[in-house]
Amino acid sequence: MEVLEKLFNVALVVATIRTTAPILLVALGGSFTTRAGIFNIGLEGQMLVGAFFAVIGSIWTGSALIGVACGVAAALVFALVFALLVVTFRANEVVVGLALNILAGGMTISLMKAIFGTRGSIVGHGIVGLPKLTVPGARDLLGSYAPLVSGFTPLVYVAFLLVPLLVLFYRRTRLGLHIGVVGEKPDAAEAQGLSVTRIRYTASLLCGLLAGLAGAHMSLGYITMFTENMSSGRGFMAVAILIFSNGDPVRLLLGCLLFGFADALSLRLQTFGFPSYLVLTVPYVVALVALFLLAWKTRPKLVRETADSMRRLLSIRPASPER
Amino acid sequence: MDYAVELKRITKRFGSFTANESVDLAVRPGEIHAVVGENGAGKTTLMNVLFGLLQPDEGEILIDGKPTVLPGPTAAIAAGIGMVHQHFKLVPSLTVAENVFLGMEITKGGLIDHRAQRARTAELSRTFGLKVDPGERVGLLSVGIEQRIEILKVLARGARIIILDEPTAVLTPQESRELFETLRGFVAKGMTVIFISHHLEEVMEVSDTVTVLRLGKKIATRPTADLTKAELVQMMVGRAVSFDRRPREKSAGAPVLAVERLWARDERGLPAVRDVSFEVRAGEVVGIAGVAGNGQTELAEVLAGLRPESHGRFRLGDVDLTGRSPAAIRAAGLAHVPGDRMVRGVDRHASVAANILMTRQDRAPWSRRGLIDWSYVRHRAEELIGRFDIRTQGPDAPVKSLSGGNIQKVVVAREFSGDARFLLVDQPTRGVDIGAQEAIHDEIMRQRAEGRAILLISVQLDELIALADRILVMFNGRIMGALDAEGVSEDALGLLMAGIAPEAVSREAAA
Amino acid sequence: MSDPVRAVLGQVLAVAIAIALGALVILAVGESPVRVFRVLFLGAFGDATKIAGTLLQTTPILVCGIAACISLRAGLFNIGVEGQLFMGGFAAAWIGFGFSLPPVFHVLLGLAVAALAGLAWIAIPAFFRARYGANEVVSTILSNYVAVLLTSYLTIFLFKRPGGWSETPPIHESAYLPAIFDFSRLNWGIVIGLALAVGVWFYFRATPRGYAITTMGSNPKFAEYGGIDIRRQGFAVLLVSGAVGGLAGGIEALGVHRRFMEGFAPGFGFDGVIAALLANGHPLGTIVTALFFGALRNGSLLLEVDTNASREIITVIQALIILAVSAQILMRRRADSTAGERRWKF
């Protein structure tokens, strides 16, 4: 019991919020492409280059903000290449996404070696991380619960605020509506003079923007360093969440919280002496189980007529053309 | 007086194929102008040129007497032209109002004003007598209402010249009649209507002027009142064609297919086939008539093992096949020409020979000792190419290099060359040119003469009347009635297709 | 010009463009492209030892590539080859060090168990894909991470070599997959790989089942209509694909490392997948692309010694090649769907 109390407390919730933020950012980015009808497996790579160039920008300019901008710019370049190949050249999106992921991995390591002469990770070198924001008055109002709302880096707030903003975006803005239409029925968009190509490019770039932010958050948020392949499958988990949520921001939030929690819990469990190798599998296993459960739940169900349903369906007067 | 629309010497080529050759079309303001012709006569191409979707290679477009260039649909819309496509372009998950205003949303402070869009849609709907509920999701609505929404979309964009491409193909006779009244209302308000059709009855009934196209050329433009139906057919086809019944001998033998109280649901879980029972005998062609989307597709899929039934049973001979796999049903003697040949009927990337091989790859002499005998496959493919007059470079040509009609012949060749006792034939001549159509009809009659049981599903009544021995009419998933095809009238079929029939009578006749 | 000729020329052109882009990247990291390519070439084909080394690197890429080809042929993406390779490698090593058995039998059993381990590892994603349509791209990718962590756990916590670091005990000599030459670790695995490539090619071309699988990959609805049970067949294809992935791990464990260790065979699974994609799923083409990637890998070993470029520069080149090629080939899955419609089951 005592162990459980130690395990589940405010600190765990705070850790969950923290670990949720990057995956939420990248998943929200993926919602643009998912809704526009593009299966974007390249999120992982966009996040990774975002993280790398954020660190580079931060070192070169001494500004975390410019670092974030550099990370976003790099992710946007990847997003643009993705859109060029998938939308314009009609290449297979799985192949392009995978290749971009591999490119991101190889490129960041090569550049790391070229610039810093090291392998493995970039630590120090004057990386400036993102500041932590204190919400004024939180301490007085909430006491020991204050860390729940205060003291996160800015991108954590951005991630969570984006959820309602995206709900509004998809429901009430023309671009949001059109992105959905392009995914659901491109013919309909084309017939009204909307350019499917332009909208898909826009969606892909918006996705790159958020994936870049997610990457910058990874390398300039709580830890200020870059390590080889540091996105370690978060982009793929985001894709899994996108599959269950179909790009709906609220359901995305719920899915990401689940993974953030699994992530935070696995970090905690390590400190309790569980073998780290097994504990680290937890988020992946959660993602897999969720993916399988969803597929099982949405399986086509076999309908059987009953005497009752048959009687009811036959008694409907067939002569109403309106149905 | 200026014409509302005047197309002069329009020529449009696709590669070596000329879809429109120096076609003239002149439409007076305030008239209903029908453009008629067979499949492939170039009607849709001409309309796409007028709507800016295609650019003519030669020729000139005048709107209200002024020469106009239409680089795209947006320009056409700006010029007051609207087009209702044959395949609706509506977004199922959006509401009626959202669909009507798609691409020209009403915004307030940068956000879409859904309330204003609904109000505006309701207003348009009242003004033009097109009843819709602006707040409803389009995915839940019937085809007839979807068409109204498409028309509303065009009206909301301020169109004065409205083009309708085959508007009645998906409608019941009543819905068509309502549509015609709406169109009359439009011309009474001074608008101009151009509609494409190959349904002669309705052309005669509703249009003021007719332009006939054949093989990409304009044959004539005449006031409808000066024409008879026979003259119109003569102009469309270029020769007198009779859709008379094929001569036949009574040959119905033992029952082959027996369907008992069959039910099935569609993708959305809604009942699509309701309590269907019938029999098909050896040497008999049973036709299934009905407006598209009344359960025929689902019925065919259940019989082919591609869709689970929700109740009931069916058997071939003595073998109960309810719930069995497509392989088991084929083994029991089914051959199937599917309704959508591009999706189900062929592998477009594979060669003609590889497509002919399907369903028999495990059987000698097609394969021996676990290996496919490709030289035999090629040899048989060549033989079928000859017998069915398939226009192709040879058995190794990929199917995608063939024309639509020839792809259908590949499907028919494969399915008709086995030893099946039951042929399930769904829309065998959809989109197929007249020559191929007659060849396929000949083949169906030959199969009948050889004693096969044939279920022929078609939305073309003339095809059913020409080939079938009995015609069952489906409406809303049910068999409304069974008629002897000998001496049946299109009117009698039309009533049943609209769902008007005492069901007690139909039940007895179907059994 | 006939279609196949044009297709091959297209691929060659795409590779040339990618190499040109790669040269730009090499310039960007401050190295001379000429020097890098020269070192890569000499490192791959400089002498007999180098060539043997290239073939040694080619072996796992080829076997993994064949695993990917098998799934691609049915229109499925097994991107979990990496994970199957790790599971197979561990399983084979376990048979190798854990049991004392007669020589030839020991090797065969080790390889068989490796294949079984790969098969078991894909079984769950394969089942949910075939039965319920769960996206196999994501599920197989995610299971890679689990496989790598799980085998590390097994190695370090349960089967660590006494006194060793993060590796299992060495396997018995009876379980060695024998080397072909005495100057290289190149082993009979390359022969197994080549035989597999030819066998799989022949199977798809000449047998009814191979025809059925090809048709399913090209148009699953047509296959279903023609009486092929696409669920069962898709499941079986993924299982076989996973088994071949496991076999690749077995060959590495018994032929090269002769034990299992952390970071056992990094990236071979992914290289195999992209080699197969580059060959457009053709097993014989995969021999060529796998050899190309094997040469790049072997050449890259010298790269860090002789130049300032890191050896990961070759993954950059590989990725660029895939991107260049992807722009002009329409993979089967894409070609069959209406452009623009949602192609994925969400």
Structure description:
The complex is a heterotrimer of chains A (323), B (511) and C (346). Chain A is an all-alpha fold and 323 residues long. Chain A has helices spanning 2-7, 10-35, 43-61, 64-88, 93-116, 138-142, 154-172, 174-184, 186-191, 196-220, 234-245, 249-271, 276-280, 282-297, 307-315; strands at 121-123, 225-227. Chain A has a single domain, classed as ABC transporter involved in vitamin B12 uptake, BtuC, CATH 1.10.3470. A two-stranded antiparallel sheet of chain A has the order 1-2. Chain B is built from 18 helices and 24 strands. The model of chain B is unreliable at 503-509 (pLDDT under 50). Chain C has a single domain (49-294), classed as ABC transporter involved in vitamin B12 uptake, BtuC, CATH 1.10.3470. Chain C contains 14 helices and no strands. In chain C, α3 (48-73) packs parallel to α7 and α11 packs parallel to α13 (313-326). The model of chain C is unreliable at 330-346 (pLDDT under 50). At the A-B interface, α7, α8, α9 and α15 of A face α2, β8, α5 and β14 of B. Chain B: One of its GO terms (cellular component) is plasma membrane. Chain B: It is a peripheral membrane protein. Chain B: It is found in: Cell membrane.
Q: Can you describe this structure in just a few lines?
A:
Chain B: InterPro entries: AAA+_ATPase, ABC_carbohydrate_import_ATPase, ABC_transporter-like_ATP-bd, ABC_transporter-like_CS, P-loop_NTPase. The complex is a heterotrimer of chains A (about 325), B (about 500) and C (about 350). Chain A is an all-alpha fold and about 325 residues long.
Jot down its keywords.
heterotrimer, A: 323 residues, mainly alpha, ABC transporter involved in vitamin B12 uptake, BtuC, two-stranded antiparallel ribbon, 15 helices, 2 strands, C: 346 residues, 14 helices, 0% strand, globular, disordered C terminus
Question: Helix and strand layout, with pairings?
Answer:
The complex is a heterotrimer of chains A (about 325), B (about 500) and C (about 350).
Chain A: H1 2-7, H2 10-35, H3 43-61, H4 64-88, H5 93-116, E1 121-123, H6 138-142, H7 154-172, H8 174-184, H9 186-191, H10 196-220, E2 225-227, H11 234-245, H12 249-271, H13 276-280, H14 282-297, H15 307-315
Antiparallel strand pairs in A: 1-2
Chain B: E1 5-14, E2 17-27, E3 32-36, H1 43-50, E4 58-63, E5 66-67, H2 73-78, E6 81-84, H3 96-100, E7 107-108, E8 111-112, H4 114-128, H5 143-156, E9 161-165, H6 173-188, E10 192-197, H7 200-206, E11 209-214, E12 217-223, H8 229-237, E13 255-265, E14 271-281, E15 285-289, H9 296-303, E16 309-316, E17 319-320, H10 326-331, E18 334-337, H11 341-345, H12 352-357, E19 367-368, E20 371-372, H13 374-387, H14 404-416, E21 422-426, H15 434-449, E22 453-457, H16 461-467, E23 470-475, E24 478-484, H17 490-497, H18 503-510
Parallel strand pairs in B: 3-10, 3-11, 6-9, 9-10, 15-22, 15-23, 18-21, 21-22
Antiparallel strand pairs in B: 1-2, 1-4, 4-5, 7-8, 11-12, 13-14, 13-16, 16-17, 19-20, 23-24
Helix pairs in contact in B: 14-15
Chain C: H1 3-28, H2 33-45, H3 48-73, H4 81-98, H5 103-132, H6 136-158, H7 189-206, H8 208-218, H9 220-225, H10 230-257, H11 268-278, H12 283-306, H13 313-326, H14 332-336
Helix pairs in contact in C: 1-13, 2-3, 2-12, 3-7, 3-10, 3-11, 3-12, 4-5, 4-6, 4-10, 4-11, 5-6, 5-10, 7-8, 7-12, 11-12, 11-13
